[in-house]
Amino acid sequence: MPHNPYSRLFAIPGTTAFTLGNLVARLPMGMFSVSAVIMISGARGSYALAGAVTATGLAATAVVAPWTARLVDRHGQARVAVPATLVAALGSVSLVLCVRYGAPDWTLFASYAATATTPNTGGMSRARWAHLLKGDAQAVHTANSFEQAVDELCFMLGPVLAAFLCGTLFPQAGTLIGVFLLVTGVLVFAAQRATEPPPQGRRHPRDHTDTSAATTSLLRARGMPALLIGFLATGAVFGSLEVVTIAYADERGHKGAAGAVLALQAAGSCAAGLVHGAVRPRGSLGRRHVLCAAAMTAAMTLPLLAVVSAGSLTVLSMALLCAGMATAPTMVTAMTLVQRRTPEGRLNEGMTLAVTGLLGGIACGAAGGGWAVEHLGAAAGYGVPVAAACCALLLSSSQACATSTRPRLRRRRPAPPRVSDAV
Predict the structure, then answer these.
(1) Which residues are listed as membrane-spanning (predicted)?
(2) Domain count along the chain
(3) Is residue 23 situated within a structural domain?
């Protein structure tokens, strides 16, 4: 057995191929929103319009993504992901054409809303690992940590690549190259049929299987509502941290350096995710989740302390690097909890709900961070991610307490024979 746990993962035939395809498909997820803002604001001269269009796409994704994920679980990844990706690609191309030829504003909203059919490639990749590593908790832990590191890498490189392409080539370059990468990556990923989880099909009430798990909303599954709200709070940490950091760098006259500063935070999270996956987890999963959330809450105070005490962008960069190291372990344990609590055959749907909650939290955090910056100042705005992290910690703690205090069914012992019965 290889000493490196990641070597053990990629020793499985077909895993390298689907991972490379998924990496190419996942990179544009950090490119599209930045590319759209640059393209629309440059052509129409309105950041408000650009922000409204991207917010509409996020809202549409929150509605459509779980439905797409349910179809993926039911009919298979290749059968659903490829046509869904082509529809999303057409929406992006339509957005480019509408901006280029001056179409009415409503066409921008309609075009970007069509991109909501983009499948959750990260969720599909995690579902493949769960299928291939079924019964091996340590290997699943390593795979989830690797996937979280990939997420951080893509969200770190995506915006930088988008800004470079739009600024160096032409404003539409980021969107068009993102479409090419998305379609290519999904086609390569879907072609790896040997590692694809088998489709679950549609269960009918006449079946003798447990239909409650197949038909009941995942929002009613035990522990899922609080867990998804926790993803919402964690997303608010990310969204507020991004907006406040950009505002703080702009206030200091270094707005161009904001991307590099935020990249350090993502780099810290990426590195911590890989290290976390190489370490054998100890203790219950719920307890680990609480500890990781507590570490994230403590780490989020570092940027606030940096701007209050030092007021230096360099010190803030180091604080964000350290703060990022606590986010990946929190996300890994939370995503593992989602996998544990999702009924069999609906794994992709459960993880997509988690990602949807995360995206919703990012939007709420960005709005809250923007309000704090405008009314309280950029330095005080760093209190928003601290407050959001505290909410995530409270949710994880209450969830762990509810699990530990849940009454257990006791096996009834037979009553001792009476003397009269023995006579």
Answers:
(1) 20-40, 47-68, 80-99, 226-248, 260-279, 291-310, 316-338, 350-373, 379-402
(2) 2
(3) yes
Return the CA Rg of the chain.
23
Interval 167-198: pLDDT, tens: 888 889 889 999 999 999 999 999 988 888 88
1 token code pair: 């057995």
Sign (positive or negative) of CA dihedral 334, 152, 131, 183: positive
The owner of tokens 């035939």 is 13
Q: Are residues 233 and 359 in the same domain?
A: yes
Q: Helix (H, G, I), strand (E, B), or coil: what is residue 71?
A: helix
CA 143 distance to own-chain centroid: 15
Residue 367 has pLDDT above 60, yes or no: yes
Residues written for the chain: 423
CATH number at residue 315: 1.20.1250.20
CA dist 240 to 48, 163, 299, Å? 18, 21, 15
Residue-number span of the structural domain to which 44 is assigned:
15-121+158-195
DSSP state, 255? G
For residues 247, 251, 253, 259, the Cα torsion angle rounded to the nearest 10 degrees is -20
- Identify whether 227 is part of a domain: yes
In angstroms, the Cα distances linking 215 to 81, 201, 212, 238, 346 are 22, 12, 5, 33, 10
- Residue 413 in any domain: the answer is no
Q: What number of other Cβ atoms are within 10 A of residue 281's Cβ?
A: 18
Residue 151 maps to a domain: no
Residues 171 and 265 in one domain: no
